[in-house]
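Re: weekly structure request thread

Next one in the queue (125 aa):
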Amino acid sequence: MKFSVDKHDKYVTLKLKEPQFTNDNAPGVKSELYLLNAEGFKNIIVDLSHVKACTDAQDLSCLLVGDRLCKAAGGLFIVTGINDEIADIIELSNIFQSVTFVNTLEEATDFIFMDELEKEFRGEK
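Done, posted below.
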């Protein structure tokens, strides 16, 4: 599985560099999400902009794992870079009801920084 990890102070970005989201690379994504969470990252962005196809909604279930891990740690899990074909499968699978999806990586980082600021103002840090 080809991917990159870009670590920052407040978040980490996992970019899947595969043309398809399949049952071959979904377990690797899931494992990486567990590792990043274990390293202390509570805000995770998954960038799927390189992914052009996904034939089975079951493969996307690893995204629910990331969402659950981040929420348990008091953080955010955001997915970005979805094309129209993958968007159709996401809609059919109802994953969008749990996972936060945004259009661009910039929107995802803004979302995280806004959330972190709100937490600071409320004294949750």
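The helical segments are 26-38, 61-72, 84-93, 105-122. The chain has a mean pLDDT of 92.
Next request, please.
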